[in-house]
Amino acid sequence: MAPAARRAEAANEEASRWVVRASGQPLDAQTQAEFDAWYHADASHAAAYDRLARVWRRLGEIDRGKLAPRPARKRRAALALALLAVTGMAWHALRDVHPGADYASGAEVLRVALPDGSTAVLDAHSAIALDFGPDTRTVRLLAGQALFNAAPSVAGGPAFIVATPDASATALGTRYSVARGPDGTRVTVYQHRVAVQCQACTDGQALILEPGQSAAVSAAGFTPGHAPKESAPDWSEGVLAFNNAPLPDAAAQLSRYTGKHILVLGELAQGTHVSGTVNIADPKRALALLLAQTKLRITDLPGLLILR
């Protein structure tokens, strides 16, 4: 990529971050000063911000209205899309059923205060069950992923543990996330340390993860992962950041935060890459912001968003 193109991409990405931040609570004095310095540092910064801010405002003013009647030849396609929408809604509903869960999130991030003063932030479509008492502080992650801020152990009291069938992660005074997937469990440490025990391993492997380290845990043992650079995962703060991500991947991530299935149609859409930081509270607006510099359009149907 040419230097000018890289600068433009960087300006667009930073502009998208400021647009999202400015759309929430008013900026405090220090943050406003940082924005002003960035905005006036380069004409490309101002142009990128103004362009994306206009798109953001227009999205808030659009009246969805009603879909126009379709010609008879298109009814079959419309019925197929309707069936896909219904199937998608049913799938979202079924994957949020977790027998035995004390807390479960739907298409939203859920913040939970735990009995010992610890906190858990559940990503969309996640669930936990609690086992707290005089001799135990254990959270079972039933589905999805969660960020934990563990309260310190009292003298002689139990340690804070997050457990899955693959692993147990014991806090050593810490902030960390645990995620379940089809191939095992991933533990990521943001502050202090975590002692991880492989429950699925025949030899009971264990390790200590330091801040900035992560590991996937399965019956095959431990696999080191990429070290996080932030103090908490983006989703726990209500945003997602994309850096030249394939649109189908970005759509799949955003679909977690809406009750709608997101369908990416056509070679152009399938081959599109997107960059920017977006607010997950409104996935349709997030997609529109990511697609602002493309020729793609969004069709909003009951239970379905189509990108093409």
Tell me what you see in this structure.
The chain is α+β, with helices and mostly antiparallel strands and 308 residues long. It has helices spanning 3-22, 29-41, 43-61, 75-94, 247-254, 266-270, 283-290, and strands spanning 103-104, 110-113, 119-122, 127-133, 136-143, 145-149, 160-163, 167-171, 175-181, 184-191, 194-198, 206-209, 214-218, 221-224, 239-246, 261-264, 273-279, 298-301, 304-307. It has three domains: 1-63; 70-94 and 238-308, 3-Layer(bab) Sandwich (Phage tail protein beta-alpha-beta fold); 103-224, Jelly Rolls (Sandwich). The strands form four sheets. A seven-stranded mixed sheet has the order 1-4-5-7-8-11-12, with no helix packed on it. Strands 2-3-6-9-10-13-14 form a seven-stranded antiparallel sheet, with no helix packed on it. Strands 16-19-18 form a three-stranded mixed sheet. Helix 1 crosses helix 3 and helix 2 (29-41) crosses helix 3 (43-61). The radius of gyration is 22 Å and the shape is globular. The model is unreliable at 61-70, 75-80 and 82-94 (pLDDT under 50).
